[in-house]
Amino acid sequence: MWENSGIPCKHAVAVFCFNRQFAHESVDWYYSREALKLTYSGCINPVPEEHLWHEFAEEEIIEPPKKHPKVGRPKKNRRREPDEEPARAKFSRRCTNCRSLGHNSRTCPKAAAKGVSAIYLSSKEHLKWYIQSKWAMSTRISDSQGVFSVVGSGDVSGSLVILLSCLHGQHAVWGLLLAKCY
């Protein structure tokens, strides 16, 4: 810190006191009274009144270039040439309706054919919260031999809501099935 600022730090001052030296002798000249007086020794003349200013021609004034805001989010990746192949996907898409790879729930062919969409939830607590907050159903959720196996249904604003659970190997899948009533 002493080398950067020119003023000794408190540790250096303690060493000077221990060695019976004067700390002010180690301070950079820039912080002396002499340097301060030289800084303010000059005279700053006041600015004359506006009618005494000399005139500027229009061509002397250069205005900064106008910035046009670009529409949309800025591109992060470079633009590829038309004959260049697109970048490889870093992750595969998994559909939340049918759990298969290659598409998402919006483009799922099975859900479009049935007119049904499924919402998969990760745990019992998430399922309880989803039912209570989103659908305001009073469904009791219980365990039977450690496997969640309660099925309930209800009618919410013209839609049939079916609570389901199924066991895939050692993993249980919880979900709500929302079927639109036409």
From TrEMBL:
UniProt keyword terms in alphabetical order: Metal-binding, Zinc, Zinc-finger
Bias kind Basic residues: ranges: 67-79
Residue ranges occupied by any CCHC-type domain in the UniProt entry: 93-110
Example of a GO MF term: zinc ion binding
Region (Disordered): 64-88
Matches recorded under InterPro entries: Znf_CCHC, Znf_CCHC_sf
Organism superkingdom: Eukaryota
Protein name, as recorded: CCHC-type domain-containing protein
Originating species: Dipteronia sinensis
Higher taxonomy: Eukaryota, Viridiplantae, Streptophyta, Embryophyta, Tracheophyta
